[in-house]
Amino acid sequence: MPAEDVSPLPDCAFPALRDHLLTHSVRRGDFTLKSGRRSDWFLDAKQTTCAPDGMLLVAEALLSVLPDDVTALGGLTVGADAAAYATAGIAATQGRMLKAFTVRKEAKGHGMGGRVAGALEAGDRVAITEDAVTRGVSMLEAAEVIRAVGAEPVLLVPVVDRGGTVEAMAAEAGIPLRALVTAPDLGFPFERDVS
Fold first, then answer.
1. Which residues of 170-195 are buried (b: 16+ CB within 10 A; e: fewer)?
2. What is the mean pLDDT of residues 146-159?
3. Residue 140 Cα distances to 5, 36, 71, 169, 172, angstroms
């Protein structure tokens, strides 16, 4: 497409992260989403969250938005794992000790059991992350598990908000949302805005 036919992207708080996502994670074509809807674009955010240079960009962005009182970072496996663990490791090199954990999709039937793996304790103040959200259900499921172990979810921070509906659901649950990048930042409408 000639450069003059390309609409400029809106301002984004994390342009390097957005550019990495556009280069490595966004695919154009004809896709059927998990919701059953058709879309002309697909986001495989793991191509950013699992790439070495992408990990650095994600960690830098996450660390810049996490409140100082957050002590742990994690969410539902597999979407949260790369962002949480990379960010905690990079934070440690900067003197910030963040615990990282995973919420399993179901309770483990052996060993210590339960749905949480990793470093999470009662009393922790938690930021819940995810590589990409459309509706936000998995982030809110993770919040319930986190509350059940006595920790407090204080922020939902997806790398990409594709759907545009998670903010209202988060508000109902009493948890603020801070997406690092949104579908409009990538040049696409929120899924909720697509008929």
1. beebebebbbbbbbebbebeebeeee
2. 97
3. 39, 21, 19, 8, 10
